[in-house]
Amino acid sequence: MNTKPLIDYFNKILPLGDEEKAFVDEVFKERRVKRRQFILEEGEICKLNTFVVEGCFRMYFVDEKGKEHNIQFAVEDWWIGDIGSFHSEEPSKLYIEAIENSVILQISKQDQLDLFINYPKFNQIFRVFTENALVTYQRRVLQNISSTAEERYLDFVKRHPYFFNRISNVQIASFLGVTPEFLSTIRKKIAKS
């Protein structure tokens, strides 16, 4: 198992010692996921926190009319999981699906708690990661209530250029809260200007 990408990720926030690295090797489990395979489905309890080593995922909700609403994408060096279900141990309302063949590292809730107790440095690391995620979600909520669809699209392009050859326009449209046709109109308008 190769935990080097995860250890590199942690080291960018706070350098790990040899004992901490060994514990990461012990508690994180590698998993290979095929394109279109789910690592979480609605109704399941999210029992694992997931770090993406390679590949691409989407997390989405399906409304009562059967329409999918993408709420997060994750690529290399990103985390993905239903944090509410993970902590409350209640059934998830979300799906997490691989968009590409992927390699992930996963940790159980108990192992993550042991990580925090045995190696307090990880409390700091995960706090930074959680704060960054909260900032991202707040920005998204503010954009959704105060920006036009075109402004949201331009911001998405600026912040996430690496998604464009990896996720479909339909998925981008869902994430932005517009129809694929409306997204196509926005893209044509931007291309002309």
From TrEMBL:
Pfam families: cNMP_binding. SUPFAM superfamilies: cAMP-binding domain-like (SSF51206). It comes from the Bacteria. Residues 31-116 form the Cyclic nucleotide-binding domain. This is Crp/Fnr family transcriptional regulator. InterPro entries: cNMP-bd_dom (IPR000595), cNMP-bd_dom_sf (IPR018490), RmlC-like_jellyroll (IPR014710). Gene3D superfamilies: Jelly Rolls.
